[in-house]
Amino acid sequence: MGVLIFMCSCENDIQQVNAMFFANDSALMSGKVVKMTYTTNGQLVAKMNTPLLRQLPESDGTSTVEFPNGLEIFYYDSVGSIKSRMRADYSIYYENQGLWVAKNNVEVVNENGEKLNTEYMVWDRNKETVSSDQDVRITNDEGVIYGSGFVSDQRFSQWEIQNGRGIINVNTDE
Questions:
Q1: How big is the chain by its Cα radius of gyration, in Å?
Q2: What pTM does this model have?
Q3: What is the pLDDT of residues 62-71, one digit of tens each?
Q4: CA 73 distance to own-chain centroid
Q5: Strand (E) or helix (H) holding 107
């Protein structure tokens, strides 16, 4: 009789059920010291290393992949040489939006040796762009440029800096 009363008094509130299954600490997948290799048609494209990865469920059925202790990614050319790299102390990938967000000590070095440093950067996979609306520093052979943000293609080969300032070395022999 007691069990019957208990079962009849139970009510499933969908918001409570979702909160239980989609809590921040309920990872779909997690891993420590993760090393991933990305290939396309057997060709090495990138390698990623992270000390901790957590895939978290979202209420819309997609997931978010969090790298709470940072990550480092190396991008390769067709002969297997590193052409660029990116590292950050924290990163998160929003699957439903196609956005990677990198935070804290973000550094990108492109194939020309140009180095970008910032505290916040977004890679939009769908638009194939990289951007930041926070302070940036770009260092190259000509000098150091500071700005209040930047926009670039995803390879960081064609970039534009907002409110740029800095010291540029100019070769007067040309």
A1: 22
A2: 0.74
A3: 788 999 999 9
A4: 10
A5: strand 99-109
